[in-house]
Amino acid sequence: MRNRTVLVATLLALSVLATACTSATSSSAAAPPASSSPSATGSPVPTSPAPAADVSGKASFTIDAYDDFFSPNVLMGSANQKLSLTIDNKGAAVHTFTITSGENVDVTLMPGTSQTVDVTFPKSGSTQFMCRFHESMGMVGQLQVQ
Ligand SMILES: [Cu+2]
Prior knowledge:
alpha/beta; Immunoglobulin-like; four-stranded mixed beta sheet; 16% helix; binds copper (II) ion
């Protein structure tokens, strides 16, 4: 929620700047409406996780870490499936990818870096993973047997 508020405030500030520039450099053209896609330049940073990903039959997969969530944060696989999982930290903060149940996985990702770990889906149900720094902010996910 807080991220969204910051984003909206940033977009508002940007559109004010854009309007100011337009009126300063052009007296005839009307200022573009504030809703004209500010995301057209550069790829927009998502504000929530992508939908669950089906990784059945795959040997490797990549998820992204943002501030502060994994995307996607639910991986659907098959029982006992092994997966070479790359975590790509696209956020500005340091994150971890951590599994404390069963196999121990714990890697720390500096901003702009990625790491690959081997994970194994459980026999049934799901295995939780999380970021140790932001678990309380909901930066969690699961390997889910479908
Ligand atoms: Cu984190």
